[in-house]
Amino acid sequence: MPLLRADLSRPAVRRTWRGLAVRGGGQGGRLPSVDEFFGTSTQVCGGFWPFAVDMALPVEGVPVGRSLMTGAAVCCDPISWFRAGIIEQPSMFVMGLPAIGKSTFVRRQVWGMAALGAHAIIPGDLKPDYADLTRLLGGQVIRLGSGIGSINPLDPGGIHTVLRQLSGQARADLTADWHERRSALMEVLLTISRTGREEGRRTLSDVESNVLSTALRILHERTRDQALPPVIADLRDLIRQGPAEVRAAAVFDAPEDDAAYQHAVRDLLASLHGLANPMGRFGRLFSEQTTEHIDLSRPVDFDISALAQAGDDVVAAVLAATWSTAFAAKNAADMLADAGLSPRRNHVIVLDEMHRALRASPLMVDRLDLLTRLNRQWGVGQIMITHTFADLMCLDTTGANQKARGFVERSKIKVLGALTRTEVQRYLRGESGLPVSRREEDLLADWSTPTNFAAGASLKGVGKFLVKLGGLPGIPVSLQLCETERMGFNDTNTKWDKTAGTM
Fold it and tell me: What is the mean pLDDT of residues 182-201?
């Protein structure tokens, strides 16, 4: 093999700051000079003003998906954003047409917040949408239905047992709160049980409310040392017996008049008997002891799917009971934590199909109105879910509609899915005053359009949401699922899948 010799006749390669000055030496080209221009915000507008680049997206919270504008990752959840100081209250409102992925979005929230230390409480799962995920997280699934599971309205949250662990002022405060919750829940259930009667007989009269409250206090005094709390049948029998205090509440001018007393409590006794009778319209739902008490050390889901085909009044009554139970248990857990008897925990309450419970009674509207105002002080976050804003404007009174509208206004994070232009223009922009731009309106309306007429076609907006925070431009995000989420618990059409090919 011949030896390689240097070509001494070739000049040396010159090295410069841009590389080797030879063909193939990697020398960089000269950078072109760029002309600079100045202009006003009116003249320079097509994307340069006021943002030269896209606004920075927060990295705190549950990973949701990617921005449809930039492809950047989007993280969002009410508790993480509250802890980071992005929002003032840990609240989120999710709204969109059916079958676009609202429940899938909220399940991602529940899963992510569980990893961050905030367990979810789902006080009413109708389909059920969250039962499988709750089991996957090692949570508690409480099934309710006639013959399946019962809930005792006279002991919401299982406070009868918790009271024995407290003493002094803490016990007095919890007893007062418990009495107020029992009275409110019983009024809601009695109001619902009277559905279908003549106009003016839906709600309890002042006399009936006084009798109910007085009887509950007397019943508590008589049974506070018993192992089990009283049930509605015990309350009915107590009012039927007519102790002196109850008679005075019913007929204050002549409590000894038996005929006047029986006339005053006749309708109340009939309504109580309807709830206590296991053969009645509500079956054994409210007539027996609570079959399974709530455990807030892990995620909790009240599975009421067995009542999906029941009447609206039955579903509303069960939702009222489960909501009251969840709030009562959370308050009791906080008092135990204050007394050093249990660790302090934060929770997120998921209120799905909320419009069904709101239509049950004005008392449910008031209860939820209180939650949206005091959730920060109570140490809970909230996620409310409904189809459209119009669902909140179909209540019995104008006052109830105004309160329901405030739920959206006080929710700091609005997550909007596919919506029609009518919904956006009349309700979101008109009724609620939500700052939705024309471009965002076009986006939401386009998402609500079917892709085509082909088999398997769906709305364009499946899995797409607009995250709104105050008056800031919304963040359009595409929800991205991991393999575990695709394995089954996100499929809400399983009953259709199982029957495929059997027709």
Answer: 75
For residue 219, give the amino acid letter: L
> Can you point out the beta strands (E) in 313-404?
347-351, 380-386
Peptide bond into 128 cis (omega under 30): yes
Pairing of strands 119-125, 347-351: parallel
Integer distance in angstroms from the first to the last C-alpha of the chain?
82
- d(CA 130, CA 450) in angstroms, rounded, equals 27
Cβ 183 vs Cβ 154: under 8 Å: no
* H helical segments located in 379-475: 398-410, 421-422, 438-447
Going by C-alpha positions, the residue among 200, 190, 188 that lies closest to residue 268 is: 190
Cα separation, 21 vs 13, in Å, equals: 7
Please name the residue that has the structure tokens 């009271």: 163
Separation between Cα atoms, residue 130 and residue 498, nearest integer Å: 19
Question: What sign has the CA pseudo-torsion 350, 189, 280, 232?
Answer: positive
254-267 pLDDT tens trace: 878 889 999 999 99
- C-alpha distances in angstroms, 474 versus 93, 180, 477? 14, 41, 9
Dig out the tokens for 344 from the structure: 């302090």
CB atoms within 10 A of CB 90: 25
Residue 147, classed as helix, strand or coil, is coil
For range 100-117, the mean pLDDT? 93
